[in-house]
Amino acid sequence: MTELVPAGFVFHQSNLQAFRTCRHSFLLRYVRKLPWPAPLAARTSSFEKDLVAGSTLHSLIHQYFLGINPELLISCAANFPDSRVSVWFNNFLGSQYAKLAANQYPEHTLQITLNGSLLLAKFDLISFEEDLIHICDWKTSRVLPKRQFFQDRIQTMVYTLVAARAQSQASRPVVMHYWEASFPEQPIIFEMDKAQLLRYEESLTDLMSNIQSLEIEEFERTSDPKKCTYCEYQSYCSRWGTEADGESLYDWFEIGLSELDGKTNNEPGEFPGTPLAYN
Amino acid sequence: MIYNSLIMNGILSLTPERMQEQAADFLAHPHLFLSGPASSGKTSAALLRLHQILTSDFNSRTLVLVPQRSLGEPYQSFLRNVNLPSSHQVSVQTMSSIVRRMIALFWPLIASHQVFRHPFEPPRFLTLETAQYYMAQIADPLIDRGHFATITLTRNRLFSQLLDNLNKSAIVGFPHTELARRLKSAWNGDQSQLTVYDDVQLAVNAFREFCLEHNLLDYSLQVELFREIVWPNETFQRYFQNQYQHLIYDNAEEDPPYVHDIVRSWIKNLQSSLIILDEEGGLHSFLGADPVSAANLVFDSTTHIRFKQNYVSPPPIKALLGYLQSSQTQKLPHSTISQALIITSKQPRFFPELLQSVSQEIADLILNGTTAEQIVVLSPFLSDPLVFELSRRLSKAGIPTQTLRPSLALKSNPHIQTILTLASLAHPDWNQPPDLYQAQFALSTAIPKLDPLRARLILDQTAPNKSVTSLPPIASLPNEVVERIPTEVLGQFEKLRLWLSSVDPSEPLDYFISRLFSELLAQPGYGFADVQEAGEHTARLIQSYQKFKRPVAADQGADAAYLGREYYKSLNQGLLSALYLPDEEIVGEPGVLIAPVLTFLMQNRAVEHQFWLNLGSKGWYERLEQPLTHPYVLNRQWQPGKKWTTDDELALGRFNLERTLIGLLRRCRGQVHLCTSDYSEAGIEEKGLLLTWAQNLFRSALREEESD
Ligand code: SF4
Questions:
Q1: pLDDT value at position A215?
Q2: Whose CA is nearest to atom 2 of ligand 1?
Q3: ipTM for the complex shown
Q4: Which residue of A81, B227, B373, B584 has the fewest CB atoms within a 10 Å radius of its CB?
Q5: Residue A239 neighbours by CB distance under 10 Å
Q6: Are residue B429 and residue B540 in the same domain, yes or no?
Q7: What range defines the domain where residue B69 resides?
Q8: What predicted TM-score, i.e. pTM, was given to this entire model?
Q9: Which of B357, B360, B333 lies closest to B346, judged by CA?
Q10: Contact, A275 vs A69, CB < 8 A?
């Protein structure tokens, strides 16, 4: 094991996805924590607006599950400058996912150890039923992604595995729901059986051990320049003017959203997203 | 000493390690108050306790509460290395960060109280800097109308003191409308000052109104809303009680009293709590820290353990500490003093010579086996020339240095300076052209092969009035100028000029900076290419702008051009003086640390050698001039109706000095090097209390020895 990724390093969906996209981006962002100017212009003008709107919807749903009066939340959504937020929130309230029940935990974090490595997931909502665990993830995509797209994502693997392994009642199956706020009637649902979870466990264990075994020069730059289009380290790697890649835009959007919501930018022990107003 | 604060009779005698184990046992002592001086092992005991919680209570969550991020570092470092699946159940936070996050999360509840004019619109959180920006909008017209006429402070210091008043009212817990009355009642001097306090009240009232009108939340309003609306709310309480079951609150003495109030009302609902008090702390009193209020938390704990040992100091330093804390009648032997405090045999005349001899001493220490990380150079304030000169001398000797000081001014960073100057050249509509020197500096930084002299030759063609409004096309340069500059460099200059002149003035400033960096400055041949620091600084500048933009963008008519102009203007006026970094900025690799005294003390770490500079300075103990506010009057411990007198001021100075000396000595494993020159850094002969104290200490010890 190299010193680069120490034993206490916490893996999560964003850093694992970043590693899969480009090993070098993982090194720069999560190991060296190198701040670098992002190629903002490449990210389209709506990138930032979409991030803020997405994050606001997540907050409203969180507040809803905390028990804040929905009428107040509807007023807040209606007064938000981006009108999509109000539409999305109303879609949510009209959906099956707004049903309140016992054992529901919004913005809940779980962490497990896999072969000595720490793996963390912060769920938008996780609910424990007697014989089933449901995980819900709220999305605000402009275009409905294909089922296959979610199926292959690290997020699906990490969330379902962490949810399954973090509980003592080992045998409960896990159902993962991706709910798209603009397409409320078309949730994408995955039911994970034991065999599938075992496969996820194997691949994630391999992936994490692989990362921990690499020497610095093995965190290579991606050979697919399309992955660089939206990467903040373009100028660091001298990868300018590369062709656009929709999937890597999605990756950067997800990283931005999870950091805005304080899901993955935290040091161990530090709760996320805590800008200091006065210190 | 350990005793049960309810029964008060169980005094036990325990070994230090045993005492730490006792403190760590959260089942035996669920609500523990742990006090002691610095370096007595309190934080180590807390880490032991945290480890016990993590290994025995997997499902519960712990909040580690600290007054400042740097004080949370031991906990974060522990969690980074502990590799336990339950480590994510620990959150290390300051109360300010909790307040900020909880207000955002429970905003709809606040909205229902109709405090704001547009309650359901989103909150606009202000940082210290953006609060100053809005305070300027309120106070500038007042100043122009003749208010604050007797005050000679710079405008940004004036704005920050006005805000400080609001903050004090919130953290101490009295209505902001009482500020002038409280300040006046303690005033003991010229009556004209009373009018100034009325002006203060006028400004803070208007600022608060403005905030309520526009959903702006400065720190004071955040604290008030949290205390009055969020904390008492049932839904919030349900949520918060579920969040944490254990609390470790370290350095409680450095927090203001509202934090103690919150903790006090919370303890009873927790499974366990550990409150740690540094008995000689309260270093941040001028910012509202209240050690007396913190000490009262002992009454809310069931057990009190007091640590007395000193794990750090060698015997001579311990003797000196004992002397300082005694009535000082029993003199210390000269040999003890000179083992603890080192003075040079021949005092240099000027400050640069002193820096030379300090660098030499440090080099000798390292040659003899001391590691660079075990040496700190301390001064009450750190000036740029001091840092520059000392780092230069040490790095010449191959010794790495690290500086740690409150955020550096944005404009003092060469990369940021260059970007800002180029931005003002690309935005003539801002009407804030750089001066000749700034433009010359920017050009030679952007194009390393264009030296300042040749840059000046080019600029002289368009800047007759000392300010540069545009760059000249190379075609317009006279032959004698063109001949003196290599063609390749002229080409780079022209490319830069054309790039700047093609900028769309309505492009957001962060996009502009990002493009300027990647399309030009980071390209081969330009000054930021392959310079990692340049990229980091550019990223920080973008973050700083984005932080500014967040609240200001919601102002009416705030388009991209307006935001860029306002940001640049605010920087120029010194309103946004700090980089994005919220705490102190650490510059350089681990090595000899150069830091202000207070910043070092708040790191809570001990080293072998401390070099104290500027010994004659009053900065070691005097508070800053604050004619618009008063941290000791606007304090919960202040007796209403009492006057603040010169005697109080002098006593405060002596108290501050003593506390600083004790704090530093307790963080010293070896020796303190007292460094002084005939003329101080400012070029004057200074004779502050610290210098006099040190001289008297040595003289009286010598006299004593002679008379023996
Ligand atoms: S620019 Fe490309 S190669 Fe460089 S870190 Fe980003 S994705 Fe990897």
A1: 94
A2: A228
A3: 0.90
A4: A81
A5: 18
A6: yes
A7: 2-102+233-306
A8: 0.90
A9: B357
A10: no
